[in-house]
Write a structure and sequence with these properties.
homodimer; 320 residues; alpha+beta; BirA Bifunctional Protein, domain 2; 2 domains; three-stranded antiparallel sheet; 38% helix; disordered N terminus; aminoacyl-trna synthetase (chains A, B); Amino acid--[acyl-carrier-protein] ligase (chains A, B)
């Protein structure tokens, strides 16, 4: 896959580090008003300027896929708990999930809750799990919907998704938010169909990011599976070439940030959801995911916090 | 406030009821592919067509406020739990809140969780409350941010917000979703400043909705405070004229749907958050909220499920 490393990953040193900037990137984003503190690591407000970049990157992704005839669907940031349970997410990533819990009591219970709150005691113990769970990746709500439509047509199916996603991993790296937006294209069909889709997006995504003036490399990757058993899953995923990430140095040169990912799920979701190809064999799936906040942060890190001063060619690509 | 009822609320009968349509509005939205079932009442996917209306209504709201110089901020769909606890929301609406809970265990706990799941037992009991809570209204994350900036300038402040919001009220009325988007303008300042703001938006919002060909009425309203004590709060709110809603018949003529709301909080949030006017006195606040899904559903109910067949004047307003 080295052919996809269209430009050199390592700028050697990031622009503001070179300038001797003593503050962390996150602090500079706060000071510049681009992100807004909430008191929780990884949970931030966004300024209008920040959002204008997110929207422009989202439009770029729309433009790149415009000729493919994808069906656009938009799901809210939570999904049905029954579908979440069946998805297998809890096997691999129990620590990242966010279940939504609610108060189901009467007026006396309410009085107790408020007394707990007033006393500074824990009031959350009696919250009960609701029927929804926060969406961990934009495509998770899609598979049961697609499976409910019956067998795929001979050409397979292609979907266009975008959603806020939740992962419980509080961090001081601005690129590791607990709530962030993921744009995705998802392909369902034969192994050949979905691998051709992934190959096409590896090229498109790399060209898009290089065109935005970002140093990048495409590398084999694995999901952060939980625990010791997870290590084996991660190794398998990496050795089989199932996941690639497009990395850009954002927080540091040494630990670049995955801004896009290109994933071949084989028949995992097909088996999980009973998704069938036209001939009745199990469907394969693949997706490309754009981390909209991460791409925005990469642009801010490399071109500076003042959008008006970004290179004209980059501004032209984003805002025409 | 009767002056704001620019057109008659009651069309007598809704267009498709008149046509003898036997299916519920929700079923027709599913059948037409505009909303997508998830198995949970009030939690739906949206089609590309549905989203195109949401986005157009959002742009209309942007256009109406464009000259006012509001500061745009966008928060993710959850907020800090400490801020949520301090906000007072749990006093009024404990039953609507959604707390986010996470797994904090080790590998043995994970094995137990998966065994519970496999056996069909409840695996959620050991999830622990995280530091975030789903956002109940777009302006809730704003107040602590504004208060942290210090005293308001003499002209006060004006913010432009939009966010997915969560309310735990499963329902078969498509207008009562558990996750929906709220666009808001929020004004902070003196009582005169914030009341003038609310008056201006009562006029703008009414003109916008009448211009979209929707029958409407503006009525005094109250929030759905919990329990018996809540009834007194609701009566006070209504008697003091603190809340008005712009209602459109969507599910039925008898029970019209609040599509916009116009709220004067008096000094509630000012006192809660220590928000001060330029002279050090407590700040008053007001907001106008646009229920983006509700307005979209009102348009679909009155103009039909085929956007291409909507009246030319309505299409012109939405898509130029």
């Amino acid at each position: 896959m080295d052919g996809f490393a269209a430009t050199s990953l390592s700028p050697g040193v990031l622009p503001d580090d070179e300038a001797g900037e003593p503050r962390s990137f996150l602090d500079r984003l706060f000071d510049g008003g681009l992100l807004i503190r909430t008191g929780v690591d990884g949970l931030y407000g966004r300024s209008g300027a920040f959002e204008s970049v997110v929207e422009a990157v989202d439009r770029l992704a729309t433009g790149l896929g415009a000729e493919d005839g994808a069906e656009a669907l938009r799901f809210p940031p939570a999904m049905a708990r029954t579908a979440f349970e069946r998805s297998g997410y809890l096997k691999g990533f129990p620590n990242l999930a966010g279940t939504v819990h609610c108060f189901c009591g009467n007026e006396a219970d309410h009085a107790n809750l408020l007394a707990c709150l007033e006393a500074g005691d824990d009031w959350t113990g009696k919250q009960a799990a609701s029927e929804v769970v926060l969406t961990p990746a934009a495509c998770y709500p899609l598979y049961p919907v697609a499976a409910a439509r019956g067998r795929l047509p001979a050409d397979g199916l292609l979907f266009d998704l975008q959603s806020y996603c939740f992962r419980h991993e509080p961090s001081l790296e601005p690129t590791r938010m607990q709530l962030f937006r993921m744009r995705e294209y998802v392909r369902m069909g034969s192994p050949e169909q979905v691998l051709a889709f992934r190959e096409m997006w590896l090229e498109r995504g790399t060209a898009m990011m290089a065109g935005l003036g970002l140093p990048l490399a495409v590398d084999p990757a694995n999901d952060p599976f939980f625990g010791r058993a997870g290590r084996m899953l991660a190794n398998n995923q990496r050795n089989q070439g199932l996941k690639f990430e497009l990395n850009v140095p954002v927080n540091s040169v040494e630990k670049p940030t995955a801004c896009l990912s290109f994933n071949y799920h084989q028949d995992h979701f097909g088996l999980t959801w009973g998704l069938e190809q036209a001939d009745g064999s199990v469907a394969h799936t693949a997706c490309v995911g754009f981390g909209l906040e991460r791409i925005t942060l990469a642009l801010l890190r490399h071109h500076g916090l003042d959008l008006a001063k970004w290179p004209a060619a980059v501004r032209e690509k984003l805002w025409g």
